[in-house]
Amino acid sequence: MNEELTKIEQIIINPKAIKKSDVQDLMKTFFAKLKNRIENYVGDYPTFIEPVYLEDNVKIGDDVLLGPNVYVGINSEIRDYVEISNTIIFDNVKVGKNFKLENCIVAKNSSFNFTDLNIKNNLLMGVANLKTELENYGL
Q1: Is residue 58 part of a domain?
Q2: CA-CA distance, 118 to 35, in Å (whole number)?
Q3: What is the DSSP letter of 17?
Q4: Where does the chain have alpha helices with state H?
Q5: Is the whole model's pTM more than 0.90, yes or no?
Q6: pLDDT 10s digit of each residue in the chain, 139 long?
Q7: Residue 4 lies in a domain
Q8: What is the count of structural domains for the chain?
């Protein structure tokens, strides 16, 4: 599992050169190996559809649905009213309120400080205080 995460992280460093099929194949392999780990989060009682893997110190807001096939990295925060499926969120990420992410990758140290995003098949990265500032690349 860690091997696929490392490969994905290396690929997304240069988003304009990404071969969609490479990322999709790595994600498929990663999710096939994904096991459940949901006991180490801080927050209310989210709904999980297994498998969901949460690293340490993940903060989860109200009315959150995670899964299936969700990985959330260390020190990440998922704010209120969020739905995430088939998505990899790397370390130190903040996901805004009322987001719906499907088949996405969120790059390390990203922070989305706005509300209302519904997006599929994208690489999301950077710091955005408005939806128009969001850096995203199709996968």
Answers
A1: yes
A2: 26
A3: G
A4: 2-11, 20-33
A5: yes
A6: 788 899 999 989 888 888 888 889 999 999 999 999 998 899 888 999 999 999 999 999 999 999 999 999 999 999 999 999 999 999 999 999 999 999 999 999 999 999 999 999 999 999 999 999 999 999 8
A7: no
A8: 1
